[in-house]
Every structure is written in C-alpha cells, then in structure tokens.
Write a structure and sequence with these properties.
The chain contains 41 helices and no strands. By secondary structure, the chain is mainly alpha-helical.
Length: 778
C-alpha cells in the first residue's frame, strides 16, 4: 500500500484494500491513509476511496493523517461541506483533548491543504481566516503555508498590485520564527507570484536578491523566470519596455548551462512561448523542431502560442500543420486560438478550412467574435463570386448561416475564453504530472498532502469540480445570457460595415434578393452604406468601391426581378449619399422605368442623375488638372480638347479652286451643322503633324474628303447644279505617279510584281470610290 501511494497507483491500492478485507486483515490508519493518498488525481477511484473512508471504523479513520488525506480528496472533488466538516470535527476534538499529542487536532498539513484549496478556488478571505486560526491554535507555519498565501495575494489583488501583495506576504514569512530563513522554495514561489502578478521587473529583482543571499536557483526557478519574460513581450509590443524578451530568455538558458542546471520540458516550452510572443517566427520553429527531435513533451499552451504566432504572421498552412500536432496529442485549442485560425484562413483565402474550423469551434460551444465572423463572411462572399452558380449558392448559404447563428447567440466579447497565468498552470502539466505550485512544493522535504484539482466553496454539489475562478468568465457568461434573452443581436454588432456590404452584394447577385433587401433596410445595413464623410466614423471608411458595388448590384437585381419601385428606392439612396455608380446601371434603370408604369418625372430624375455624374467627373478632372484625353476609341487620330472650332469647317473654307466662275458662284458655303458631326483631328501639342505611314495618311484624308463631298452634294441638290471633285492631292508621295483611284493592275504590272489591295483601297471600295467604281459626283 505504501508503494502504491508513492507511485500514485490508485487501482492497485484499492485492489490491495479489497484483498485485505477478503482475508480478514484489520484496516489500520496508516494503510487507509496510504490508500487515500494513492487515489489522488483519479476521479473514479477518488469516489471509491472516500466511500471506504466513510465506512471505515473510527479507530482507523479518526486519526489526523487519515483525515488530512480525506480532506485533500474532498477538496479535489469539490465537496467543500465535507472538507470543512472534518476540519471542524478535528478542531472540536483538539479543544477537548488534554494534550496536543493525544488529540486529533488540525496540524500544519491540515491547514496547508485547506489554504491551498481556498487559493485554487480564489477564496483569499477564507484562506486568511484559516491563517488566523492556525496562529491562534499555535500550529507552526511552514514555507508551504506562505507559498499558498503569496499566490492568493497576487491572484486576488487589483490589477498591477499583485507583485507588491505577494512581496508583503514574503516579508511576513521572513518575520515568522516558525518558518526559518528563506530558501529556494519560498524565493521561487515569490518569483512565480510576481511574474503572474504582471511585474516581471520585480521577479528579476527577487532573483537578484536570491543570488545575493547565496541561495542556488533550481530548474523550477528558471522556469518561472522564463514565464516572466513573456510579460516583457507584452510590454514591448505596447512600447512600455525596451527589453527584448527573446534575448533575455536565451540569456537565462546560458546561465542555466553555466550553473549545470539541465532544462526540462517545462523550460523548453516556456522558451517557445516567449519567442513566439516576441514574434521571432524562425527562432520559434527552430525550438519546436528541437523539442520534437529529442521527443520532448509539448504543452497545450505552447502549441497554442505557436499557432497564434503563425496566425499573426499570416502563415495559415503552417498554423494548420501545428493544429494537426495538437489533434494527435489530444489537445483541444481554446476559443481564442480557434478564432485566430478562422480569421487567418479566411484572410488568406483558405475558405474551406475557415468554414471547417468555424463549424468545429461551434460544436465545442465556442462563439466567434466580431472580427472573426466578419472575416469569414467576407471570404465566403468572395468565394460566391469566384465560383460557378451552384457553388456560389452553397457559399452564400454558409455565409448567411454563419451570420444568423452569430446573431442568434451573440458574438464573443473581447477576452472571452482567454486564460490568465493562474489558469494556465491548472491546465499545463509537466512530465511528472505536477503544476508549477506542485513542483515548487516538491522541493520541500516533508510528507504532506496537496489539494489537487479545482475547488469552489460555493458549489457543494457532489461530483462537481469547477475551474479556477476568473472574474471575466462570469461577467461574459452573464452578459451573453442576458443578450440571448433580449433576442437577436443587431447586424452591426455581429459584422463590420465591410462584411455587411459584402453580404448584401453577394446575396443580391446570387438570387437571395429578399434576404439582401432585409439586410439592406436594417439599421446596420443603412449605417454600413453611409459614406465616411457623412457618418464620421473611422470604422466605415471608403473601401475601394465596395459601397458603389452594393448600390449597383441591388439596383440591377431589382430591375431584373421587375421591382422597379424598389430599384428607385435604391436610386434615392444613391442620390442621398452622393455615390457615383456606373452609367450602365443608370441606363438600365432608365430603360426599366420607361417600360414600367412609373411617373415620368422619375425617368427624368434618373437622366438628370446621369448628366450630373458626367458633369461632376469632368469638373473633378479639371480641378485635379488632369491632362486632357489625347485618344478615343470613337474616332481615329488625336482628339481635340477644344471644341470651339471644327477642323472640317476650316478645311471647308479652304476648298480647292473650281474650274469655272459659274461653279464658284453657284457653290454654297459648307454647312457647319452637317460638318460638325465629323470627327475633329488636330495636330499634336508641338504644332507639327505626326508623320504617319502613307496608307494611313491617305485613308484619313479620304474620309475627310468624302465628308465634304457629301455635304456639298446635299447643298447643291436643290439647285440642280453639280460640282467636280478634285482628288489630285491624294497622289502625294506616290512612287509610281499614278492616281490611287486608277487602275491598280497596270501599276502592279509595271512594278513587275503582284501586290495585295492596301487598306485605303479596301476602305474606298466599300464606299463606291475604289478602283473600277469611280462615279461622277454629279
């Protein structure tokens, strides 16, 4: 039984008890105490051992050692009523006993066990009351007593005052004559309390005092100091500290090597967490590989820190690989880790993984926060645009489902699911199965029992063990419950303005117009569509035309469905917010209005908005002193920025001389109204006409001449007169000296080769002016 107690073999210890009963051996106090001690940490065996204790005869169960072991098991199972009932029985028996040695009064181990249990459940006031009872009863204190009190003081102190509160308890321990001089056990406990209290500078000052006092640090001491380096990482990111936490951690490892202290897995995991929070990705991965190569044990918080560091650096695939490591080891990531994974996968385009992790997080009871829900919704909406129609509808259904579930249950508040330094120790176990406090306690050479596990004095239900108290958890849970009773959460509390706009546009584009209109008309949707200059909030700034896209998609979708009145409602919002939409959208709306039975003034209103946008665009170009357009796909050549003169009119005034005075007299002036429809081409800015190829130059001149010819023919048709067309100038730079409208076959024969028809002749032939088709203008 003693061997089972030391090795923690609960099943074997209970089997030995049954064997003793079968053979008729009497149950002794030492045997029962050893069996109770062996069952610590095994929930099923703990209950069976407590049943044995409750049914044991008084001569075996009434000793102090047995009751101390039972108190530890009651504390581990969360049965505060039975633990303190035993304590009160021991106090009553001690008060009635004639001598302390003959009584079963509480001793140092009893008080230390109860104080540790109160600290684990965040009941510092009750722990202090136990210390007063301990002093009043004249029970000597030990280092373990003040170690638990230092942890309690640091944990329950106001923010920023935990380290000072722990230091005051340490001073009381030094002044207590029953504890003796401070050793590595109590120094390490103070360093740990100051580190978790958020003051790493105080922890390193204590370490310096420890070395000055000639006390040698242990591997647990260095582990606590490495954890203190993590607080330097948080203060460095906020600009409050100039200390590089990673360099400080590596310096501690060097000092461990100089002192001959071998780092254990806890130290290596602490180093990885420090380097990951410092943002040194390469060093972090090197340390992870080193632990994996020597087959060390990874802690859950270590792998979570690696995943979050990779998420912050936007390494989605690497973060997913570390997540698979956690799955293999049976670790379940916390809610903040899931949210970081979903957010980085959505941002990096891993839509399927983002959705899978979101569903996995939901099954575990975790809620996404607003940035996570917004990133996932936007990623699904982008995927709904980039895929075919069937997959697009599936992606949109997922986006709507994520939004509606978040609206029904609410989103996670900031910090929800985060663990503090005290909670991490309850979850993080070393290879020996001990937390930091237990490792510290293991340095003390005394046979003492610990309160293992979590314990709450307010919950006395049998078989219920609550986690360590965290004020934020209770507040968040209460707020979430109250919000669930009020009904659905408004869209603006679930999604960011950009995510709301993406969801509206994707729903309208994919055919879910009813949902799009519902979200569009909600207060959150209205607020998301207001430009930043109107709303005045930085969270709703311009996002590269996303707001314009929503208006265009909604207007066009309503027109496609025949909902012209709803399309005009969207059009009114366009005017109210002064958003510039596509001219195609407005033209489509105008056509739908003309076909529908809407008031005529609405058609004019759409046309006016279209003219307003064109005018505003021109004015903006002038105000910005943007260069005038030099090219256009409507005409050939260089576009004239000044429309006060028409080059065709100028050419019409300088017509070639007529062959007779009668023709000259009968020739009317060129019509400016008919010639103004021709394209205006001018010289380049330098005043020199650009040299073009011969064929292109002839083609352009022929187009102008054809325009003048048509204008003159129209003017002279009424008078019956005709005119002869002089096209001799078209023979410029002709190497053969032939008329370009003449017989090209003869020219080709003289050239001694056959040539294809050039573009000029092809153009002129289509107009009836090519070779073989010369017509008399009259």
């Amino acid at each position: 039984m003693s061997v089972c107690a030391r090795a923690g073999r609960a099943k074997e210890a209970l089997g030995a008890l049954r064997l003793m009963r079968t053979r008729g051996y009497p149950l002794e106090p030492y045997t029962l105490a050893s069996a109770l001690t062996a069952c610590r940490g095994a929930p099923r065996e703990e209950e069976e051992a407590l049943e044995v204790f409750e049914s044991a005869p008084p001569e075996a169960s009434a000793t102090t050692a047995v009751r101390n072991a039972a108190i530890a098991l009651y504390a581990a199972r969360g049965r505060a009523d039975r633990a303190f009932a035993l304590y009160e029985e021991m106090r009553a028996e001690g008060a009635n006993a004639e001598s302390f040695l003959e009584s079963n009064a509480p001793d140092t181990i009893t008080y230390n066990t109860l104080i540790a249990a109160c600290v684990a459940s965040n009941k510092s006031a009750r722990a202090s009351a136990l210390l007063k009872d301990m002093i009043a009863a004249g029970v000597p204190r030990s280092e373990r007593t003040y170690v638990s009190l230092m942890a309690s003081a640091s944990r329950t102190a106001p923010e920023g005052e935990g380290a000072a509160a722990a230091a005051r308890v340490f001073a009381e321990a030094e002044a207590d004559d029953t504890t003796g001089p401070a050793n590595e056990f109590i120094y390490t406990a103070l360093i740990d309390a100051q580190s978790k209290g958020g003051d790493p500078n105080a922890a390193f000052e204590t370490y310096g005092k420890m070395k000055d006092a000639g006390v040698s640090p242990t591997v647990v001491t260095f582990g606590c100091l490495l954890n203190a380096c993590r607080h330097f990482a948080s203060t460095e990111s906020s600009g409050e500290s100039d200390v590089d936490p990673a360099d400080l951690a590596y310096a501690l490892l060097s000092e461990m090597s100089e002192r001959g202290v071998v780092p254990n897995d806890r130290c290596q995991n602490a180093l990885v967490r420090v380097v990951s929070e410092a943002g040194r990705i390469d060093d972090m991965l090197d340390e992870v590989k080193a632990i994996a190569r020597r087959r060390g044990k990874f802690e859950r918080t270590t792998l979570e820190g690696v995943v979050r560091a990779l998420c912050r650096a936007s390494y989605a695939e690497r973060a997913l690989r570390i997540l698979s490591w956690m799955d293999v080891r049976g670790y379940s990531p916390s809610a903040p880790t899931y949210r970081a994974l979903v957010q980085v996968c959505a941002t990096e385009g891993q839509v399927q993984w983002a959705w899978t992790l979101h569903q996995r997080m939901r099954r575990l009871g975790h809620r996404p926060d607003r940035p996570t829900c917004s990133a996932l919704t936007q990623a699904l909406c982008r995927a709904a645009v980039a895929t075919d129609s069937g997959e697009a509808r599936g992606m949109l259904r997922r986006a709507i489902e994520a939004f509606e579930r978040a609206a029904a249950t609410g989103v996670a508040a900031e910090g929800e699911g985060e663990t503090n330094a005290w909670d991490e120790d309850d979850e993080r176990m070393s290879p020996t199965g001990m937390t930091v406090e237990q490792e510290i306690a293991s340095m003390e050479d005394q046979s003492d029992w610990d309160a293992v596990g979590d314990w709450s004095l307010e919950n006395d239900a049998r078989g219920v063990a609550l986690g360590p108290a965290c004020p934020l958890k209770g507040e968040v849970a209460a707020a979430a419950e109250a919000k669930a009773k009020r009904g659905k959460v408004p869209p603006e509390e679930v999604l960011s303005p950009g995510a709301i706009r993406s969801l509206i546009a994707a729903a309208a584009r994919t055919g879910e117009l009813r949902f799009a209109l519902k979200l569009y008309r909600s207060p959150g949707g209205r607020a998301a569509l207001k430009p930043a200059r109107v709303r005045g909030e930085s969270g709703n700034a311009e996002d590269r035309g996303a707001r314009r896209e929503v208006f265009e998609v909604m207007c066009e979708a309503c027109c496609h469905e025949g909902l012209v009145d709803v399309a005009l409602e969207v059009f009114d919002d366009i005017k109210a917010h002064d958003v510039r939409v596509s001219k195609v959208t407005l033209a489509f709306l105008e056509a739908c209005c003309r076909r529908s039975k809407v008031p005529e003034w609405r058609v004019f209103d759409v046309c006016a908005q279209l003219r307003h946008q064109v005018t505003a665009k021109k004015q903006a170009r002038l105000a910005a002193q943007m260069p005038a357009k030099s090219r256009s796909h409507h005409v050939y050549g260089v576009v004239d920025s000044a429309d006060s003169s028409d080059e065709d009119d100028v050419d019409a005034m300088n017509l070639p001389p007529a062959s007779s005075d009668e023709d000259d007299a009968s020739r009317p002036p060129a019509s400016s109204s008919s010639s103004s429809s021709a394209a205006v081409v001018q010289d380049d800015g330098g005043g020199e006409r650009r040299r073009r190829r011969d064929v292109e130059d002839k083609w352009e001149r022929a187009r102008r001449e054809r325009s003048r010819h048509r204008a003159r023919g129209a003017a002279s048709a009424g008078s019956g007169g005709g005119e002869s067309l002089d096209l001799a100038w078209l023979t410029l730079d002709d190497p053969y000296g032939d008329d370009p409208y003449g017989d090209y076959d003869s020219r080709d024969r003289r050239a001694g080769r056959e040539e294809e028809m050039d573009p000029l002749q092809a153009e002129l032939r289509t107009e009836g002016l090519g070779r073989g088709n010369r017509q008399d203008p009259s």
